[in-house]
Design a protein that fits this description.
Mean pLDDT: 87
Distance between the termini: 24 Å
Radius of gyration: 12 Å
Strand content: 35-45%
Helix content: 10-25%
Number of domains: 1
Structural class: mainly beta
Order of helices and strands: EEEHEEEEHE
Shape: globular
Largest sheet: 6 strands, antiparallel
Length: about 80
């Protein structure tokens, strides 16, 4: 389900509020998608990126943010990974 208002979420290593998430990805939140049975969103949309949240470890729950530019022609050089 897509939400246009922020919902706090956590992993075993971090707790994400809107402010901490925006600081981590250096962009402004717009929407997020939660899939059934997940404790964290699958996708977060920001002003400039679509961010995929993927599990990054097996021993404990942690995630990696895969930032994809929403406007690739204009933002191609800004595409990168944040963990």
């Amino acid at each position: 389900m897509i939400f246009y208002e922020w919902i706090d979420f956590k992993t075993d290593t971090n707790f994400y509020t809107k402010e901490t998430f925006e600081e981590t990805v250096n962009d402004t939140f717009e929407a997020l998608l939660f899939e059934n049975g997940k404790d964290y969103p699958a996708i977060v949309w920001t002003r400039n990126y679509v961010i995929l949240l993927k599990p990054s470890t097996r021993m404990y729950q942690d995630i990696t943010f895969h930032k994809i530019a929403r406007h690739p022609a204009a933002e191609e050089e800004r595409m990168h990974f944040v963990s």
